[in-house]
C-alpha cells in the first residue's frame, strides 16, 4: 500500500518524544489459547535464538530473536517453535506478509514493552495548532506513516495472539490522532479490508473519524471539510450511513474525549 499523497492534516504543537516511531481476523489454526503460560520470560536459555524471515523469496530478511521472549508472548509462536511443526526443527518462521518496519516495532516492544524511542510520536499539548507541513519534513513524513505502521502492528499482534501489544499499538495510534486528527484514507481502507468486522480497531476508527469530522465541520474550514468528504468515501459503502448518523449526533451534542481503554482487547 503506497504511503504517498497523504491528506492535508494539522497537528498540535508538542514536544518530540525522541525517536519513537490475507485477513488477520483470527489466529492461524496452529494457535493455542490466547494467553501463554507465563507473561515473563525466564530467559533460562539465552543462547537459543529463532529466526524470522521477513518478506518473500530471495528478498526475505532474516531477523533473529531470543526464543524465550518470542514464545512467552505469543501462543502461536510458542506452539510453532515447541510443537510438532517444521519450525520446531528449523527454528525459522516465515512472515511473508509482514513488513520489516512492522517487525522492527514488534521486536522493540518484545524487549522493552514500549514503543517509545521509535519514529516521530508527538506528546500532545493543549496549546496552539500548527500545520503538520510546518514541522521538519522528515518528522512530518514519519508522523503520517506511523498511522499506518501502528495499524499494521495491531493487526500483526492480533494474528499472532498478543493482546498486550495490540493495546500498546492502539494507545500510540490514539496519541497520533489526538495530535493530528484527520486520518489518512489508506489507513481506513486498510483497517476495513484487513480486520474482522466489528473489531475493536474498526470501532475506534469509526469513533475517531466522526469526532474529527465533527470538529472540522464546526470550524467551517472548507479545505478540511473537503478532506473529511474524502475520508467518508474511504469507508465501506454499507458503513457510510452509520458514519453519517454518528456524525449528525456528534454535531448536535457536546462530546467528551474518547476513552481509549474502551477499545482495548482483553489481555
From TrEMBL:
Pfam families: BTB (PF00651). It comes from Cudoniella acicularis. Residues 1-42 are annotated as: Disordered. The lineage of its organism: Eukaryota, Fungi, Dikarya, Ascomycota, Pezizomycotina. This is BTB domain-containing protein. InterPro entries: BTB/POZ_dom, SKP1/BTB/POZ_sf. Residues 21-38 have a biased composition (Low complexity). Residues 48-116 form the BTB domain. It comes from the Eukaryota.
Amino acid at each position: 500500500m503506497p504511503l504517498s499523497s497523504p491528506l492535508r492534516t494539522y497537528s498540535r504543537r508538542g514536544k518530540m518524544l525522541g525517536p519513537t516511531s490475507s485477513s488477520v481476523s483470527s489466529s492461524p489454526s496452529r494457535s493455542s489459547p490466547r494467553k501463554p503460560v507465563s507473561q515473563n520470560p525466564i530467559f533460562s536459555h539465552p543462547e537459543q535464538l529463532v529466526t524470522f524471515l521477513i518478506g518473500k523469496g530471495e528478498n526475505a530478511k532474516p531477523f533473529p530473536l531470543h526464543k524465550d521472549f518470542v514464545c512467552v508472548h505469543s501462543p502461536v509462536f510458542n506452539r510453532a517453535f515447541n510443537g510438532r511443526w517444521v519450525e520446531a526443527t528449523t527454528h525459522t518462521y516465515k512472515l511473508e506478509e509482514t513488513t520489516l518496519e512492522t517487525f522492527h516495532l514488534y521486536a522493540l516492544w518484545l524487549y522493552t514493552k514500549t514503543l517509545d524511542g521509535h519514529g516521530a510520536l508527538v506528546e500532545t499539548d493543549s496549546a496552539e495548532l500548527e500545520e503538520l507541513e510546518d514541522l521538519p519534513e522528515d518528522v512530518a513524513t514519519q508522523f503520517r506513516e506511523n498511522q499506518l505502521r501502528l495499524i499494521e502492528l495491531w493487526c500483526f499482534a492480533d494474528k499472532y495472539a498478543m493482546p498486550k501489544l495490540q493495546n500498546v499499538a492502539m494507545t500510540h495510534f490514539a496519541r497520533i490522532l489526538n495530535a493530528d486528527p484527520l486520518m489518512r484514507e489508506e489507513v481506513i481502507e486498510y483497517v476495513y479490508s484487513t480486520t474482522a468486522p466489528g473489531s475493536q480497531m474498526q470501532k475506534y476508527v469509526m469513533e475517531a473519524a466522526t469526532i474529527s469530522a465533527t470538529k472540522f465541520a464546526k470550524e467551517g474550514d472548507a479545505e478540511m471539510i473537503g478532506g473529511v468528504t474524502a475520508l467518508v468515501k474511504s469507508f465501506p459503502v454499507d458503513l457510510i450511513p452509520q458514519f453519517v448518523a454518528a456524525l449528525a449526533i456528534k454535531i448536535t451534542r457536546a462530546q467528551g474525549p474518547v476513552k481509549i481503554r474502551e477499545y482495548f482487547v482483553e489481555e
